[in-house]
Amino acid sequence: MSTNSNSSSVSQQETPEEKLFIALMREDWNNVVKILGQHPMIHDKKLGNMMKATNERSADSSRYDEFLSDTVLHWAITNEAPEFIVEKLVDVIVEVGNDKALETLRANNSRGDTPLHCAATRGSLAICRCMTRVDESLVFELNGEGETPLFLAALLGHQLVFLFLHSICVEREPLLASSIWKRTNGDTILHCTIRRKHFGQYTHNYAASFYK
């Protein structure tokens, strides 16, 4: 009886950040959705802040260092959470996040990637559709290398994602700015995809508008 009482007391003392961090590490995705629904203020919390809240930075936790600036969305997408789970996370963020929802969707990690960059990197058309339904302008966000989600989709050979993101770009900006085709170092989508032998026929058709 006392054991149950003690465990209940410990559970009650856990902060939302602690609960979320533990659920993420266990890939308990349904619980992650539940926690976000109950605690809008932690939607954009970074993994590093959650880890500090647990007071359990173990010796092997250094393997998470490159992900410390990830939000729940970054982490879930990168770690292959089921697409329907990510869609639920986005829905919860939009429904209960109020004014912070767009801020959460635009959050950057250490590479400057937004969650849409991560979805494009993963090659998930479903997640890209889900996010752009909320805000199509996410397609124009640049990461630390000056890459758009469109650029990453082309670079990694995700043809359907590239074509989908490109269709949004064309619809919103008929005269596409050169920034969506270029990194900050001057490399273009065409240069990178030819170098990697990815997908050249697709990017050639669309990048032609940039070279005119």
From TrEMBL:
On the tree of life, the source organism's domain of life is: Eukaryota
Q: How does it sit in the membrane?
A: Peripheral membrane protein
The record's subcellular locations are: Cell membrane
Where is it predominantly found? membrane
Checking Gene3D superfamilies in the record gives:
Ankyrin repeat-containing domain
Give the matching SUPFAM superfamilies: Ankyrin repeat (SSF48403)
Q: Where is the signal peptide?
A: none
**Pfam families xrefs:** Ank_2
Please give the GO cellular component terms listed in this UniProt entry. Answer: plasma membrane
Which InterPro entries does this UniProt record tie to the protein?
Ankyrin_rpt, Ankyrin_rpt-contain_sf
Query: Which PANTHER family does the annotation name?
Result: ANKYRIN REPEAT PROTEIN (PTHR24121:SF15), NO MECHANORECEPTOR POTENTIAL C, ISOFORM D-RELATED (PTHR24121)
Give the protein's recorded name: Uncharacterized protein
Traced from the root, the source organism's taxonomic lineage reads: Eukaryota, Viridiplantae, Streptophyta, Embryophyta, Tracheophyta
